[in-house]
Design a protein that fits this description.
The chain has helices at 2-12, 20-29, 45-52, 110-128, 156-165, 183-199, 216-227, 268-278, 280-302, 317-389, 395-400; strands spanning 31-38, 66-70, 73-84, 87-95, 142-147, 171-175, 231-232, 239-241, 247-253, 256-259. It is of the alpha/beta class. A hairpin with a 5-residue loop joins strand 8 and strand 9. Helix 8 packs across helix 9 (280-302). It binds guanosine-5'-triphosphate and magnesium ion. InterPro entries: G_SEPTIN_dom, P-loop_NTPase, Septin.
């Protein structure tokens, strides 16, 4: 039983074919990939994840299950370690059952946005700690959005959701249960979905077909992948034994079977190749260098920091702290110099004022002295004059003074 599982993993999962550079780096400690799935109840989320990763991540919700209930959308996280050619992938799937279920779906995206943001926040907080060695990266690398196979076009809730999420996460819109539509219906449905996506300027994840460094085969492969977006997929957890004895994942119908892996009937194979084999690193890279960067810039701006990205190619909190300290020092020095200049000026002003008042005092003193001298002189002159005119008092004079009784 376990031998079969191991063989299946080797043959099908394929992330050990990761680009060499990353492969070598990741081989020891393994690497993380975090996938979020969003879509209404019973649309086929759990089935597709189990089909994609050849493992029963759902529904065994045991140890590593975290559930949050918020505004009707329940967010559940499940992790599994998948081994492929001795490369370990820690796959985390974040499931959001309950999305779009209630009658009033206004804001049903809020708990999903909050979940994505809180993962960015946690990464940012760890990055801001000066020791980086143990960063736990829980950021969402890709979000598979399940479009209901109505055959019409995108519904309002799809548009609202995609519009709000495309700046935060790599969006991979897919049409689920593709077996419920005919291939002609699918062609028209895909065209209308793409027209809606472009009319609303929604960014979805697309493999590049213009990279000069890619070889021709890769470019051809990417073009092929691009032509199938949005992927119409079929999922199944059941295996069917073919006449040659091989076991394949398939869905059974009264008239026969459809193999999940059959490119003639659906795009499951292309989706899996893109997600796991060819573009897992692109998804992680875009999340880190574009989506997270944007989030971080906005967060730092909100906190009042300004970052000149032309100077800091990579975010380095130690460098920023050093830069901040330098700026702060320069500011202090400038302030000190200004204060010194003002002080000097005040001292000079005070000194000159003192000198001035001293001079004033002196001149006033001189004036006063002069006028006092003058007064003294005048008084002396008067005294001399009085003394000169003075005569002794005679008795006659006394008798002359008769008064009332002398009359
Ligand atoms: N016809 C068809 N049925 C499918 C397909 N994928 C899944 N189903 C069926 O749809 C039903 C719901 O599938 P799940 O994978 O449990 O759906 P889900 O989105 O995880 O549902 P919740 O967890 O309840 O939100 C099951 O009966 C599946 O067998 C498909 O590709 N085609
Ligand atoms: Mg489910």
């Amino acid at each position: 039983m376990s031998a079969i599982t191991k063989k299946t993993l080797k043959g099908h999962v394929g992330f050990s074919n990761y680009p060499d550079q990353v492969h070598r780096k990741s081989i020891k400690k393994g690497f993380n990939f975090t996938l979020m799935v969003v879509g209404e109840a019973s649309i086929g989320k759990s089935t597709l994840i189990n089909t994609l990763f050849e493992t029963k991540i759902f529904p065994e919700r045991e140890d590593s299950v975290v559930t949050e209930l918020s505004k009707g959308v329940e967010i559940t996280t499940m992790s599994a370690d998948i081994l492929d050619n001795n490369v370990k992938l820690r796959l985390t799937v974040v499931d959001t059952p309950g999305f779009g279920n209630s009658l009033n779906n206004d804001n049903s995206w809020t708990p999903i946005i909050e979940n994505i943001d809180s993962r960015f926040d946690s990464y940012l907080a760890q990055e801001n700690r000066l020791i980086h060695s143990k960063i736990q990266d829980n950021r969402i690398d890709a979000l598979i959005y399940f479009i209901k196979p109505t055959g019409h076009s995108l519904r309002q809730i799809d548009i609202e959701f995609l519009k709000r999420l495309h700046t935060k996460v790599n969006l991979i819109p897919i049409i689920s249960k593709a077996d419920t539509l005919t291939s002609e219906e699918l062609v028209g449905f895909k065209q209308r979905i793409l027209a809606d996506i472009s009319a609303h300027n929604i960014q979805i994840f697309k493999p590049t077909t213009t990279d000069l460094y890619d070889d021709l085969e890769t470019i051809r492969d990417n073009k092929e992948t691009l032509s199938k977006i949005p992927f119409a997929v079929i999922g199944s957890e059941n295996f069917v034994e073919l006449p040659d004895g091989s076991r394949v994942r398939a869905r059974k119908y009264p008239w026969g079977i459809i193999q999940v892996d059959d490119p003639e009937t659906n795009d499951f194979r292309t989706l899996r190749r893109m997600l796991i084999y060819n573009h897992m690193e692109d998804l992680r890279d875009y999340t880190n260098t574009v989506l997270y960067e944007e989030y971080r810039t906005q967060s730092l701006l909100a906190m009042g920091h300004f970052q000149d990205n032309s100077v800091f190619k990579e975010y380095n909190p130690a460098l920023i702290a050093e830069e901040d300290r330098k700026l702060h020092d320069i500011k202090l020095q400038k302030m000190e110099a200004e204060m010194n200049a003002v002080f000097q000026q005040k001292v000079v002003e005070k000194e000159s004022k003192l000198k001035q008042s001293e001079e004033e005092l002196y001149s006033r003193h001189k004036d006063m002295k002069l006028s006092l001298e003058k007064q003294r002189k005048a008084l002396e002159d008067k005294k001399k004059l009085i003394e000169a005119n003075a005569r002794p008092v005679t008795p006659m004079d006394k008798s002359k003074k008769k008064g009332l009784f002398n009359l």
